[in-house]
Design brief:
single chain, Beta-galactosidase, Chain A, domain 5, 19 helices, about 35% helix
Amino acid sequence: MGAFIQAVSGNPLLTKSDMQLAVRQLYEPLSLAFSPGGALLQLGGSGCGYPGSLAEMEGFSRLFWGMVPLLAGGGDDPLWETCLQGIINGTDSSHVEYWGESGDYDQRFVEMAVFGLALALIPDRVWEPLTEPQKDRLAAWLGQCNQHPVFDCNWLFFPVLVNMGFCRLGLPYDQAGMERNLNRIENFSLSGGWYSDGEGGHSDYYTPIAIHYFSLIYAKLMEHVDPARCGRFKARSTRFAKDFIRWFAPDGSALPYGRSLTYRFAQSAFWSAMAFAGVESEAIPMGVIKGLVLRNLRWWFSKPIFRPDGALSVGYAYPNLVMAENYNGPGSPYWAMKTFLPLALPDDHPFWQAEELSLPELPPRAHPQHPTLDVVRDPGNGHVVAFNAGHSSTNEHTHTSAKYEKFAYSNVFGFSVPRAEWGLSQGAIDSMLALSERDNLFRVRRRNEESVHGAGFAYSRWMPWFDVEVRTWLLTGLPWHIRVHRIETGRVLTAAEGGFALSLDAGLATETSPYFAEAASDAGTVAIHRLVGFEEALLIYPQANTNLLHPRTVIPTLQAELTKGSHVAVSAVYGQPQTVPLIRVREQADAIAGWWQDIGFDADISLKGFRELAESFQRCLFSI
């Protein structure tokens, strides 16, 4: 295992041959996990919401997101013959490893999509070697996606890709179904090139790694059939790229936000699809796109993301089932291989010929294009934070509040998910306000009654109980931001406000008083200071494996006891990637406290007044 880790992390990822090697390196440990018939990847170790045999089929199919581009671009892999035999056996109803018949909303449809890409890109390797009966069985098994409904979200693209493969081969395909699905997907389009993942759904990584990714593949391969739509797809991706690039830091890391983060380096799959479709702009040329992909891969390959057997683990920056989704099987993380799509491009393509460029100069803040997030960057240290106004709807996915409703998401400090429901240690409540009926069971924001955000501010109104209304204002910035809460409560409550979670690295230094809690380590410096309303400050040590980036953390926290009635609670929250002397943090906090006293905040402030307050806070930050 040590040699494997050293080989993967030591890959310089500079050239096409380096990326080809990376695919082979990632797949080499899996050679012993194939079933006897080659149709299943038997990784074991954990379960998910669908049967084990289907999870094993999922693991098998997801390898093709890397294998297909590798073969299409002139590379090869010793596992290919096993994979081809797996396709033959998996689509043969008389074989013991048959992948089975599909039903409505079936997970098999997710996994069929990559076979559509294979039919389109490598028919000489995946179609032509088959006998006529084998071809008929493969086409019939894939054709099931045209006979059943799929979820009304990014899933609509899965049958589109299958039919795209049929079309490219000259086989009969469901043109009407493709048109219907594509039209529906375009209905999810939002401003700034964003999509929601379904009607009223979240705008998270499914916008770049699913909807844009698949639309760019379609735009590249179906332009001769559907030129107008392909042009729209490319135009939206160009607009989206200007906003999405701000999610990435110079070191290759990106914002952890939303669900399905176990797909890890799929974070940069959008940029790979941009290269594949030949979409670039003066603002984001091909060299910048190349740098985004390669640096993100290098960042991920430096993390302990592998199991002892060399397979990708379920988790984020380390193996972690606590943060996983119900649909994350042992093979699910291999959707990350979508980032290797540029391997399909010829050696003389501009992506491979371009010099890798660093990120262009990006403004510390820009007018937000994302429906709920205001992304702020610190050019001096690579800290990227998304401040969140929150959503008017929610869903049933695991840890939805933690993944979509925190006030801030950081590429340096990550975010935490609850381990269980009892208390602040199990709840791991970072970047949130939590309320309890003094029974040690805390509620946090799950959805909003109303919200608005802009450059420098965010506002939301949310109701954790029918008789408790919280109005939250965020004044965004780095390294400090301000949180203001007006709480109208019909019950007696305990309030707890958590700052950023800091890794418990060597050299931890802490300071607490009734008014602040601070911590500094080799991983950075975090703090929370009382401005109004809170009565106690403390350091919470959450249970292990709650934070996505660091297994053990500390969260500076403020608390208050609230009687029935109206309350205002205000905090100043600090997060800096470097180790900062805590006395310096307190000096800045004192300056912010003086500014806050001077402005005379009115809890009935208008939106216009709050915009002006946000501008005043930016001047305060600049002065300290």
